[in-house]
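User: Could you check the structure of this?
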Amino acid sequence: MLHKNLALKLVSLGLALFLWFWVLFTQRTVIVETSVKAPIAAHDVAPGLALANALPEAEVRVRGMKEDLAGGPPGVNAYVPCSGLAAGRHTLPVKVQVPKNLTLVEVQPPRVEVNIEPLVKEQKPIEVRLKGSLSPEYELVNSSVRPRYAHVTGVQSRVGQVVRLVANLDLGRITTPELPKTAPIQPLNQAGTVVQGVIVTPAHAEIVLQVRPALVARTVPVVPKAQGTPAPGYRVNSVVVEPAIITISGPAKKVEGLNKVETETFSLDGLTTRVTRKVRVVVPEGVSALNGGTVTITIDVQRERAGRARGRD
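Assistant: Sure, the predicted structure tokens are below.
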């Protein structure tokens, strides 16, 4: 049974092996091309110098076996050699490094212009720029920044554009003004826009706010506070406060909650006649009353009528 049609079976096996090796060989040897984009870097710029212009991307065309390019874009590095170059403008060839199993076909652009400038470092004062306003309970007295100066580092043309360093702070976002606030330092040009491509050291500054509770004023009635009773047979006919309304001043949180103020406690004990006294008004700590906070109390005491006394008995 095994030997039946043996020749046919051997021919089929041989044909299958041939086809397998043919597919493997032809697929392995298929050559394809592809294009990839790579940023162009500047290599070997001399110490104390730096590139002042942005370089474009290079479009690199490579050739290789289909199998080697099937895993995605190959790793390609594009650069311009700057070794030994002085400050100035130079037109340089674009060099490309490709993996060993690939062949470089073309690079566009083949040459680029580079602008090399000296690196400089300048010290400039930091300004504080405040916007918005504190919550109504606080009043801003002064602001300061630390450190007072920062360094700007970069190529000469860009550092020369920086006319001021500004630390911005939005007062409307502050809930605890007694703490130092951290703000980024921005390098600005004459037009007030941020200069790109420079490094500010330090990058942040602390803004110290000097604040005090905001003072508000309010007029409120004065309520006399008495204790005791007149002499036997006498009664209080009236108690007049002058002024009856006074102005108080203090932090908004304390003042806005006051609808009246009371006087210091004064005694009615033993009174038999009309008397006038000066007493102070009582206000919370941190609140003050204008005009010294003193009012005049006039107490009118009258003898009770005999009929009223008998009726009360």
